[in-house]
Amino acid sequence: MKYKNITFKHENGIGIITIDRPDKMNALNNETLNELNEVLDKVKKDHTHVLIITGKGGKAFVAGADIEELHEQNKQSGYEFALFGQSIFSKIENLGKPVIAAVNGYALGGGCELALACHIRIASQNAKFGQPEVKLGIIPGYGGTQRLPRIIGIAKAIEYSLTGDIIDAVTAEKLGLVNKVVDSDELMVEAKSMAGKIASFGQVAVSKILNAILLSPVLTIEEGLKREAAYFADCCGTADFVEGTEAFLNKRAPKFQNK
Ligand code: COA
Q1: What domain range includes position 184?
Q2: 187: domain CATH number?
Q3: Each residue's pLDDT tens digit, 29-55
C-alpha cells in the first residue's frame, strides 16, 4: 500500500510507521490521520509484533495537528475533529501489541498526544515535548488532558498544559514522560533494539502483560488481581509457556511460536 504522508515498513516482526511531512514539521492533517488509521488496522492483523512510530527528518516527531485545518473548525466540527484524532490514538493504545514512540525533535500538541498514546517513549536529546494549545485559544483535543496526568501526575500536567511550556528531553525523562533519552543518531538503533528484544519473546505473554498493565488505572485492585490471575492462567495454557519453562530447565534458549 502506497501512502502520501506516511511510510510503513516491516522487518523481522518490527513495524515502523514514519510520519512523512517534514516540510510541515510532520503536522497531522486529516489526510495523514486517515492514512495512520488505515495502516493501524493493517498492523493489528499482520505479523508485526512490535510497532515503532517516528517522524521523518531530524527536526520534528510531529509538531501537532495541522493548524491550517484546525483554523477552519467551529463548535460543531470541532467535536468531530477531536473525536476522530482521539479514536486513532486510542487505536494505538489498544492495538494489543507494544508501540514505541521514537521521538526526534518537536512533539508538540497532537504530536505529544501521539507519543502519549504509545506504550514506550524513547527520545533523542533534541526532543521537545509540550501541549501549547492554550496559546492558540484551545485545549489539547487528542487525549492530552487525560493521558498526560496519568503519566506525569496531575500537578505537572496542569502546569505544562496551562503554560504551554516546552519540556526538554532531560526534564521529560525526570518526569517519567520518556523511558529513555539517547543521542539523536542512536534513536532508531535503540528503538529497534528494544522492539527486537520484546519481539523475541512469546507474543501471547507480551500482549497479556500489556493489557493487564493498561487496565490497572481503570480497575479496582481486586478486579485487577482477578484479571491478572485469569491472564496468568491463559498463559499457562500456551505452547510458549511449556517451551519457555522447558528451555530454562534444560539450559537452552527458548523457541517461541507465539501460541
Ligand atoms: N500545523 C501546520 N503547519 C505547521 C505546524 C502545524 N502544527 N507546525 C509547523 N508547521 C509548518 C510551518 O507553518 C512552516 O510551514 P511553511 O514553511 O509553509 O511556512 C513549516 O512547518 C516549518 O515550521 P517553522 O515554524 O518555520 O519552523 P521553526 O523551526 O521556526 O519552528 C515549531 C518549529 C515546531 C516550534 C513551530 O513550527 C511551531 O510552533 N509549530 C506549531 C506547534 C503547535 O502549536 N502545535 C500544536 C498544534 S494544536
Answers
A1: 6-199
A2: 3.90.226.10
A3: 999 999 999 999 999 999 999 999 999
Q: What percent of the chain has pLDDT over 90?
A: 99
* Tally of domains within the chain: 2
- The answer on 217 and 126 residing in a single domain is no
Ligand 1 in contact with 206 (CB < 6 A)?
no
Q: Is there a domain that residue 256 lies in? A: no
Of the residues 69, 113, 173, 223, only one is catalytic, namely: 113
What pLDDT was estimated at residue 109? 98
The dihedrals phi and psi of 167, each to the nearest 5 degrees, come to -110, 115
Q: Is the shortest distance between the CB of 65 and ligand 1 below 6 Å?
A: yes
If asked whether residues 177 and 235 sit together in one domain, one would say no
Interhelix angle for 144-152 vs 154-163, to 10°?
130
Q: From CA 28, how far away is CA 61, in angstroms rounded?
A: 11
The preferred substitution site among 25, 32, 145, 166 for testing ligand 1, maximizing ligand atoms within 8 Å of CB, is 25
**Alpha carbon distances (Å) from 203 to 43, 101, 190, 197, 237:** 14, 19, 20, 11, 14
CA distance from start to end of the chain: 28
Which residues of the chain fall below pLDDT 50?
A: none
Examine the domain organization and report whether 72 and 128 are in the same domain.
Answer: yes
Name the catalytic one among 133, 186, 190, 228. 133
Whether 133 is catalytic is: yes
- Looking at the structure, do residues 144 and 183 belong to the same domain, yes or no? yes
Q: Which atom of ligand 1 is nearest to the CA of 140?
A: 48
Q: Are residues 158 and 83 in the same domain?
A: yes
Any domain includes 15: yes
